[in-house]
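Listing S7. Sequence submitted for prediction.
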Amino acid sequence: MSSTNDNPHEKAADGSSSFNPAQPAKVPAAMPLASLNPEQIERLKAVDSRGTITTDGTIPASQVTDSRETISSVPPSQEPKILTADKDVPLLEIGQLWGWKYKILQEIGRGGMGIVYMAQDVILHRMVAIKVLLGGPRGAKEDKARFQREARMAARLSHQNIVAVYDTGISEQGLYFTMEYVPGQTLQQVIREQGQVLRRDFTRVIEILEKILEGTAYAHQNDVLHRDLKPSNILMSDTEIKIMDFGLAREIRPEERLTETGAFIGTPVYDSPEQIQAHHGELDERSDLYSIGVIFYEMLTGVVPFQH
């Protein structure tokens, strides 16, 4: 039954509900937790272990959803597009609420397996980077397994030179995980745009190298081999240098392997000879060190070795 009432929760003359999930309810700026139904409270506890959002016992009304709404509270007309063979089609809409708590602000990068967006956590009021799997629910089984492994690998690492993972999960649109948002540029962008300045500042080059080595050494100490270290996977801000993208990472002594023997993965100009030759069983910490050596060479010269 349709209704022209302004309040989507208002009942019609015959007593039936005229709820319209595409029309926002008019509610005050904040609502006490006592006024929420049990399902709403449980959903809040799922994202806040304390069961409370504010110190005065209230929750912003923008964070309250009706139990009959979808988990993302997105009107049907604004549901995200599922990625097809055309990888230029955006997976998420700007302004969309993903996973009920992440407001999508803009796309900041994409790779062979996922798209990364800058988003706002509307519960904790902080900026995050959210990575979603290409293809959404239609993604290949092995891609889903690799995506989840990336989240697990990165989540077990807590170091000032590695991008931290905050949260991971699955929604009706597919797999995702959230990371700390680091404003700035990748080392690849710095080399391209400020290469001559960087090459004259040997102290800065050594500082960058040390931070990459420290983060990589920590990962190795925790049995994680990155396997895709390159300038585009190094984030730099004015005060921080962090390694990101553990999409190809695996345990140094893996119990299971997702990539079949003989299949090459990685970026050839930065990868060790044994990785290029797909001798994955022989890879150890030295393979990552080879990649770091190539990065060091490129920072000093502006080109990669063996380019021709």
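Caption to Listing S7: primary sequence and predicted structure tokens for the chain studied. Residues 1-36, 44-90 have pLDDT under 50 and may be disordered. Helices lie at 38-47, 141-155, 187-200, 202-221, 273-276, 285-301.
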